[in-house]
C-alpha cells in the first residue's frame, strides 16, 4: 500500500485482493465486463462472418467494398469514441434525431441500457475490420472443389455454408473469439472513456476502466494494482487455453 504522493508505503499482504472481492461494485464490474465481452464477441463475429460470406459473392466493385470494411481498423479507439458521441448525442446527434422521429427517446447519458449498448455497438464497429479480414481469408482458403461438389449434390448456398464452410472455419473462429475477448478487456478503454466515462453511475465501468479510475482518479494505487494482477491472470488463462487448443488441433491433423 502506498499513499498518493509515493512517500509512504507499507506491506498489507493480501488485503487489497480481499477488499476487492468484498466490494460489491467490483463484483458488479466483473459482471459488466462479462456481459460486454459476450455481446461484443458474439455479435462482432456473426456480423463479420456474414459480411465476409456475402462479399465473396460480389464480383463487381468487390475491392471497394473490402476497402470500406477495412477502413474502421485504421481509426484510433479514442476517435471512434468521439465520433459515436457526436452521432448519438442526446441533444444534437444525427442518429438520435432520426431515432426521435421513430418515437425512440435515446439518451445514453441517463439510461444505463442505452449507454451499455452504445459502447457495445461502437466496440463492434471498431473491431469489425479485424474479424472480417480473417474470416474472408479463411473462406478464400477453403478448396472450391468442396463447394462445387456440394452444389452438384444439390446443396443450396446456406446449406453449403453451415455444413462445409462454417465447420472448416472453426480454428479461425476460436482464434478470433479469444482475440475479441482480449480486445474487450483492454482496447475498449478509450471508447468507454470518450463515450460514457464509465457511466451513467457505474453502468459501463468495465474492469480495465475501473483500474484507470481507481488508480488515476481515486488515487487508490493498491487496489488498482491488485485489479491489474487479476486482469492479467484472466487474460493469461485465455492465452493458455488458446495455445492448448491450437496445439491439440495441430496434433490432430
TrEMBL record:
Coiled coil: none annotated. It holds the Pfam family BPD_transp_1. Its main location: membrane. Residues 30-242 form the ABC transmembrane type-1 domain. The chain crosses the membrane at residues 34-55, 67-88, 115-137, 166-186, 225-246. It is found in: Cell inner membrane; Cell membrane. Keywords: Cell inner membrane, Cell membrane, Membrane, Transmembrane, Transmembrane helix, Transport. It comes from the Bacteria. It is a multi-pass membrane protein. Belongs to the binding-protein-dependent transport system permease family. UgpAE subfamily. This is sn-glycerol-3-phosphate transport system permease protein UgpA. It comes from Orbus sasakiae.
Amino acid at each position: 500500500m502506498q499513499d498518493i504522493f509515493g512517500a509512504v508505503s507499507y506491506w498489507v499482504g493480501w488485503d487489497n485482493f480481499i477488499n476487492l472481492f468484498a466490494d460489491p461494485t467490483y463484483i458488479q464490474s466483473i459482471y459488466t465486463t462479462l456481459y460486454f465481452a459476450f455481446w461484443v464477441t458474439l455479435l462482432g463475429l456473426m456480423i463479420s462472418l456474414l459480411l465476409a460470406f456475402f462479399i465473396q459473392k460480389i464480383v463487381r466493385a468487390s475491392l471497394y467494398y473490402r476497402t470500406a470494411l477495412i477502413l474502421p481498423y485504421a481509426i484510433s479507439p479514442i476517435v471512434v469514441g468521439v465520433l459515436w458521441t457526436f452521432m448519438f448525442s442526446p441533444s444534437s446527434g444525427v442518429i438520435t434525431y432520426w431515432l426521435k422521429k421513430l418515437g425512440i427517446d435515446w439518451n445514453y447519458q441517463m439510461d444505463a441500457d442505452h449507454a451499455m449498448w452504445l459502447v457495445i455497438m461502437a466496440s463492434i464497429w471498431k473491431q469489425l475490420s479485424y474479424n472480417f479480414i480473417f474470416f474472408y481469408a479463411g473462406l478464400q482458403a477453403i478448396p472450391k472443389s468442396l463447394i462445387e461438389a456440394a452444389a452438384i449434390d444439390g446443396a443450396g448456398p446456406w446449406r453449403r455454408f453451415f455444413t462445409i464452410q462454417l465447420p472448416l472455419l472453426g480454428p479461425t473462429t476460436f482464434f478470433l473469439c479469444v482475440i475479441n475477448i482480449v480486445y474487450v478487456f483492454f482496447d475498449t478503454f478509450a471508447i468507454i472513456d470518450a463515450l460514457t466515462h464509465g457511466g451513467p453511475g457505474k453502468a459501463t465501468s468495465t474492469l480495465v476502466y475501473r483500474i484507470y479510475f481507481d488508480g488515476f482518479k481515486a488515487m487508490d494505487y493498491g487496489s488498482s494494482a491488485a485489479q491489474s494482477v487479476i486482469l492479467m491472470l484472466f487474460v493469461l488463462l485465455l492465452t493458455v487455453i488458446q495455445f492448448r487448443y491450437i496445439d491439440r488441433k495441430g496434433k490432430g491433423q
